[in-house]
Amino acid sequence: MPYKGFGNENEVYLIGRVLRDRGIGISAIEDSRFRNFRKMYKRFMTWEIPNARIKATLDGNEWISTTNEEGYFEFEIMNHAFPKTDNSWREVKLELLDQIIPNQGVVQATAKVFIPTKLVEYGVISDIDDTIVPTGATRIWEMVKTTFLGNAHSRMPFPGVSAFYQALEKGTDGMENNPMFYVSSSPWNLYDFLMELLEVHKIPKGPLMLRDLGLSREHFFSGSHFDHKLSQVEKIFRLIPSIPFILIGDSGQHDAEIYLQVIKDYPGRVKMIYIRDVSENRRDHINEIASQISGLGVELVLIQDTIAAAKDALGKGWIRQEDVLDIIKEKTENSES
Questions:
Q1: CA–CA distance, 301 with 286 (Å, rounded to integer)
Q2: What's the rounded mean pLDDT across residues 8-31?
Q3: Phi then psi for 325, rounded to 5 degrees?
Q4: What confidence tens digit (pLDDT) does each residue in 176-209 have?
Q5: Domains of the chain
Q6: Cα–Cα dist 53/229, whole Å
Q7: Which residues, 6+ apart, have CB-to-CB distance to 22 below 8 Å?
Q8: What residues form DSSP beta bridges with 54?
Q9: 214-258, pLDDT tens digit by residue?
Q10: Residue pLDDT, tens place only, 58-81
């Protein structure tokens, strides 16, 4: 199971996992709650393949990685020249070198890696839970029910989100070249589910930076929500060094605090911060953080809905007028349905 990677002209970061295929498949809009629960159960009850060698092939060059005790593998491809082109996605061929079961045959997969093109205006890093899709992340039982009983079709994004993210990906030239990254404290077990959710609701694809449930691994962060998200955002900044970023999150957890630290660690790299207002109790605290961020030369806007963010981005000249009209239309249709 390769996860979407990313990098620059000289370095690529790619991770994935080797697991027994539980036959989860894609979801359907008519799937029952029991069927959804059974699929989600399989995602968490994994059978990992440790100590397995994986070969990555790119442009005729090969690299080898070995899975750890939870089946994860990692490639950090260094000093490889990636010419800037108009195509931002490259393919890396992966092959399992070790025999795990008798008569297994060839086991291969293709990983997609994002390399920014020469036409990028800015990048976008977004949270998922309560930023793109309502999850009740601040209410544990509500979040558990939403996660285990729903599927990619029944989990509806906030109205207008899909069109807004499409507008950000297009920027002002309409070329869909601005990179989109999704950083979440959801576990890697939900990777296929979240990718399907993005595809079903036509939210632009991009690398997902999720969290490991294990406690003993070193390469994949399993610490606090704050530490995990900060480390992943800063990894993106390090590997995509030449462009500014718009950061999007929500007020339910600690996105504003994390983004404040990012600004301190990487001055001049943050273009704008949008925080969805989902917690009335934290509103005053978020405004205090916004004041601190303003003192560092960056604006944080606490938004009530997607339209507010879209109008702000339009006013700053980051998206196109015609795309804002699509956002308003989508939000109206979603709100009425």
A1: 10
A2: 90
A3: -60, -35
A4: 889 999 999 889 999 999 999 999 999 999 999 9
A5: 5-114 (2.60.40), 123-336 (3.40.50.1000)
A6: 29
A7: 42, 43, 45, 46, 47
A8: 65, 96
A9: 544 444 444 577 889 999 999 999 999 989 999 999 998 899 999
A10: 888 899 999 999 999 999 988 777
The amino acid at residue 59 is D
| Neighbouring-strand partners of residue 14 | 75
End-to-end CA distance of the chain: 35
Give the global pTM. Answer: 0.91
Please give the structure tokens belonging to residue 124: 């976008």
Give me 304's structure tokens. Answer: 């009530």
Structure tokens at 198: 């993005």
- Three-state SS string over the chain comes to CECCEEECCCEEEEEEECECCCCCCCCCCCCCHHHHHHHHHHHHCCCECCCCEEEEEECCEEEEEECCCCCEEEEEEECCCCCCCCCCEEEEEEEECCCCCCCCCCCEEEEEEECCCCCCCCEEEECCECCCECCCCCCHHHHHHHHHHCCCCCCCCCCCHHHHHHHHHHCCCCCCCCCEEEEEEEEHHHHHHHHHHHHHCCCCCCCEEEECCCCCCCCCCCCCHHHHHHHHHHHHHHHCCCCCEEEEEECCCCHHHHHHHHHHHCCCCEEEEEEECCCHHHHHHHHHHHHHHHHCCCCEEEECCHHHHHHHHHHCCCCCHHHHHHHHHHHHHHHHC
